[in-house]
């Protein structure tokens, strides 16, 4: 997971690991709440997207419970499930009988759940639940590591581009490094843009808009 260089790659690996490592799992997906928006970040196939859509449309389902209550949710027989009748019917119609939803991460106002599905009743044992929670813990570490790495790459790219922009200004106006940086800051403030964007434009076009 940590070898992936994008968050989507990490999430795809998590879903694939769930299917291959948690015994009875045949389908898996990751649901995220981004502030109040709920959506599927990763899925093993179209079936997951279809049943997730039922949860979002009806505002009921196991992954929503897992996200909101920050608990592990398990159902051993969807044909007898009463907590989410509309969702349960849709899942049964897709051939699913058991499910397990485990909280994946909490990051500020964002929450994530790992959802696992099987076609047999009573498919998940206590050991399977423990394995799923362990996978979720490792996945959360990988996700955080990827986020830090992406932020670091972005910061380094921004630093390089700002350095390039300063070099252009120093050569053009015969000014010092500090004076060139001050010009970039002035342009950023007056045009209400990020310093990185001002530097990108200068490096790409040779233009520095100050007002």
Describe the structure.
- There is one protein chain.
- The protein is of the alpha+beta class.
- 56% of the residues lie in helices and 18% in strands.
- The protein is built from seven helices and five strands, in the order αββααβαββααα.
- Helix 2 packs antiparallel against helix 4 (85-93), helix 5 packs across helix 7 (195-205) and helix 6 (177-191) packs across helix 7.
- The two termini are 46 Å apart.
- Per DSSP E runs of 2 or more residues, the count of β-strands stands at 5
Shape: elongated
**Secondary-structure element pattern, one letter each:** HEEHHEHEEHHH
Mean pLDDT: 85
Main sheet? 5 strands, antiparallel
Given as residue ranges, the uncertain stretches (5+ residues, pLDDT < 50) are none
* Terminus-to-terminus distance: 46 Å
Helix content: 55-70%
Q: For the largest sheet, list the strands in their spatial order.
A: 2-1-5-4-3
Oligomer: single chain
Q: Helix count?
A: 7
Portion of residues in beta strands equals: 15-25%
- Content-based structural category: alpha+beta
Instruction: Tell me the Rg in angstroms.
Output: 24 Å
Q: What topology emerges from the helices and strands here?
A:
Layout: H1 7-21, E1 27-34, E2 37-43, H2 46-58, H3 62-69, E3 73-75, H4 85-93, E4 98-107, E5 110-118, H5 126-173, H6 177-191, H7 195-205
Antiparallel strand pairs: 1-2, 1-5, 3-4, 4-5
Kindly list the characteristics that best describe this protein.
211 residues, alpha+beta, 5-stranded antiparallel β-sheet, 7 helices, 56% helix, elongated
Summarize the structure.
The chain is built from 7 helices and 5 strands. The chain is an alpha+beta fold and 211 residues long.
């Amino acid at each position: 997971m940590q070898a992936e260089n994008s968050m989507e790659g990490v999430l795809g690996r998590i879903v694939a690991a769930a299917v291959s490592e948690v015994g009875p799992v045949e389908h898996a997906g990751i649901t995220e709440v981004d502030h109040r928006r709920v959506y599927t970040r990763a899925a093993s196939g179209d079936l997951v997207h279809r049943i997730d859509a039922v949860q979002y449309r009806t505002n009921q389902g196991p992954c929503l419970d897992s996200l909101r209550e920050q608990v592990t949710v398990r159902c051993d027989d969807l044909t007898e499930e009463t907590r989410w009748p509309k969702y349960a019917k849709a899942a049964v119609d897709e051939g699913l009988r058991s499910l397990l939803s485990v909280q994946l991460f909490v990051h500020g106002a964002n929450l994530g759940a790992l959802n696992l599905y099987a076609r047999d009743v009573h498919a998940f044992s206590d050991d399977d639940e423990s394995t799923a929670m362990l996978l979720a813990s490792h996945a959360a570490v990988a996700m955080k590591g990827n986020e830090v790495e992406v932020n670091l790459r972005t910061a380094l790219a921004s630093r390089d581009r700002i350095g390039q922009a300063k070099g252009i200004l120093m050569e053009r106006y015969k000014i010092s490094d500090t004076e060139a940086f001050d010009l970039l800051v002035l342009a950023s403030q007056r045009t209400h843009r990020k310093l990185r964007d001002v530097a990108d434009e200068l490096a790409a076009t040779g233009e520095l808009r100050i007002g």
